[in-house]
Design brief:
alpha/beta, 5-stranded mixed sheet, 5 helices
Length: 156
């Protein structure tokens, strides 16, 4: 009897837990179709707080909106602690393949390497966009074309 109760309780909780983990999928981006794990290459950094991650994505968005051209990607954070970074294509060409999405990440890396933060910490030649995201405390990044695919990068 007790085993049946425990088993029923576990079955009742599992779908809720799975849904809680996937609540952004299907709302902000299509189903995750591929994933990878990124192991950070640079030294451990102090823990960044939610406010830092929110300010980071806000500043990126403000910079894009000030540009004379329309933004081609949207970058935003979700989760209770803004720990999930989402980068969504806003036109059909930019993320038409995962390879193009990775090329955009390489461009973001090039830009990040010119920032005072990267230079001050001597990581401008080694760190990547994924390193920066991990330093800021993001747990993962989802890249998506916004139509048919999403790719999740777990940051370790």
């Amino acid at each position: 009897m007790f085993r049946t109760f425990i088993f029923s309780a576990i079955l009742t909780v599992l779908p809720v837990t799975a849904f809680a983990d996937d609540k952004r999928e299907g709302y902000y981006y299509p189903e995750i179709t591929s994933e990878e794990t990124f192991e950070r290459r640079v030294a451990k950094a102090p823990n960044a707080k939610k406010e830092v991650r929110t300010a980071f994505t806000t500043e990126l968005t403000k910079g894009q909106l000030k540009s004379p051209t329309k933004p081609r990607i949207a970058i935003f954070a979700k989760g209770g602690e803004s720990e999930h970074l989402i980068i969504m294509a806003l036109d059909d060409d930019i993320f038409s393949t995962l390879f193009r999405a990775r090329a955009v990440m390489a461009q973001l890396t090039s830009h990040a390497r010119t920032t005072p933060f990267f230079k001050k910490n001597g990581i401008q030649f080694a760190a990547t966009w994924f390193d920066l995201a991990k330093i800021l405390g993001f747990e993962d990044i989802v890249l998506s074309d916004g139509k048919t695919w999403s790719h999740k990068v777990y940051l370790k």
